[in-house]
Amino acid sequence: MIKQQVDVVVVGAGPAGLSAARAAAQAGARVAVLDDNPRAGGQVWRNGPAHPPAAALTWQLAALRSAGNVVLLSSARVVAPLDDRGLLVESAQRGALELGYQRLILATGARERLLPFDGWTLPGVTGAGGLQALIKGGMPVRGERIVIAGSGPLLIASLATARQAGATVLAVVEQAPWSALARFGIGLAATPSKLWQAAQLTRGFGGLRYLTGSVVREAHGDGRVERISIRRGASADRAADVVFDCDRIACGYGLVPNITLGDALGCAIRRDAAAGSVLIVDHEQRTSLDQVFAAGECTGIGGMELASVEGEIAGLNAVGATREATRLHAQRDRWQRFARRVETAFALREAARALPSDHTVLCRCEDVSCADVREHTNWRDAKLQTRCGMGPCQGRVCATAAEVYFGWNTAQTRPPFSPARIATLLEAAPEPATASE
Ligand SMILES: Cc1cc2nc3c(=O)[nH]c(=O)nc-3n(C[C@H](O)[C@H](O)[C@H](O)COP(=O)(O)OP(=O)(O)OC[C@H]3O[C@@H](n4cnc5c(N)ncnc54)[C@H](O)[C@@H]3O)c2cc1C
């Protein structure tokens, strides 16, 4: 197996990881930054055949190149931690790789929170961020009628991407009530750059319905999505359904931090079934483990600007440049305040948290229904009795939903974190003891 040793390893090449790598490299450290996507940029700067890289990403990559001491590994994922400051990496270009480090920076970002509804497994239903990723990857949607639903600012980013690609967005369905959104909108005056961004992305919602205090009730279709029912109103007695004929539904209820690697390493975690569990960091972005830092959305959902400044602080502290890092604290505080306002405005309300009908599939990998899971008192029991969360996605979707519906702790990190080649795992396995030993 190829072995490589550097001063700083950064996992994740989104805004946090790239800022961390740049800060550490510019201070002279030998840095390796890796990401499981084929192109650097993480979620917000995702690019592809139909979507050129954003200017900010081009700038970050140029700065890394000019530092000269950075290895950027794309299509490379950490499948397991190794003893003694090492990571087992599977790289599309290099095969199995053992990456050794003095300092580790976790910048593993977030995942979309998908909450099931009747019909959510029909072809044509994706997450809101999922739709964006597909469009940026080249999926044509020109002329399609799309409904975007769920909660949070990602719906608006998804709206802009879908429109730009030529789709007709019929409605944006937001679970948060109008009153919370109005308060949030007024508060945007404190961050004019965000106000401007929102205006650019929505174009005032011209030509579509913007339904607040509403959730998706059901997707209908024969082999593919043809129609969506949306429940308006919080209380069942005053609720009314609205129906749209559509070709596609993109539904995501915000984001949850991706703490898989930090959890496997043993970093301290703050468990929160409502907002998603986060890696705990101090003001220098240090985790509870010696020489392991974390930045960006694995430490809490906060958007690109917060992720970038946290990454820079982590990168500087990882190379001992604490004074330079301290100068960025005020900027981080400002974006953290913004993140708290977003969290309050888009907190999941009762209608979104309500368990869907008994026959709705909760775990699509193992075909387990909500009724099957509801029978059990905790996640471990549900897994053992129903195989829920034990399929190829290893609970990325259903465990997150079960946390919301049942308040369970669904932490279950066990390497390998994602499907890995047997050869990769064998190379990392300790030599078996011989008969004479
Ligand atoms: C699907 C989706 C779409 C989004 N779209 C937008 C948008 O359009 N606009 C916007 O403002 N915000 C968007 N966001 C929010 C976005 O997450 C943040 O604003 C920002 O990208 C966070 O930066 P980050 O560096 O913390 O994480 P990310 O940008 O998420 O980067 C983390 C990277 O780490 C990689 N990674 C994780 N684990 C491993 C591992 N074990 N091995 C290798 N690599 C790993 C991930 O694949 C990812 O590329 C989106 C989020 C999601 C989940």
Report on this structure.
Residues 7-308 form the FAD/NAD(P)-binding domain. This is NADPH-dependent 2,4-dienoyl-CoA reductase/sulfur reductase-like enzyme. This protein has 437 residues and is of the alpha/beta class. The protein folds into 3 domains: 2-111 and 256-343, FAD/NAD(P)-binding domain (3-Layer(bba) Sandwich); 114-253, FAD/NAD(P)-binding domain; 355-406, no CATH class. 32% of the residues lie in helices and 23% in strands. Strands 4-3-2-8-21 form a 5-stranded parallel β-sheet. The radius of gyration is 22 Å and the shape is globular. The model has no long low-confidence stretch (mean pLDDT 92). The chain binds flavin-adenine dinucleotide (FAD).
* CATH-defined topology of the largest domain: FAD/NAD(P)-binding domain
Mean pLDDT: 92
Query: Superfamily at the CATH H level of the largest domain?
Result: FAD/NAD(P)-binding domain
Largest sheet: 5 strands, parallel
User: What is the total domain count?
Assistant: 3
* Percentage of residues in strands: 15-25%
Radius of gyration: 22 Å
Unreliable segments of 5+ consecutive residues: none
Q: Which class of secondary structure composition applies to the elements?
A: alpha/beta
Count the E strands.
23
Shape: globular
Helix content: 25-40%
Number of helices: 15
Q: Output the strand order for the largest sheet.
A: 4-3-2-8-21
In the CATH scheme, the class of the largest domain would be Alpha Beta
Protein name: NADPH-dependent 2,4-dienoyl-CoA reductase/sulfur reductase-like enzyme
GO molecular function: oxidoreductase activity
Domain FAD/NAD(P)-binding: 7-308
InterPro entries: BFD-like_2Fe2S-bd_dom_sf, FAD/NAD-bd_sf, FAD/NAD-binding_dom, Metab_Enz_Cyan_OpOx_G3PDH, Opine_Oxase_asu/HCN_bsu
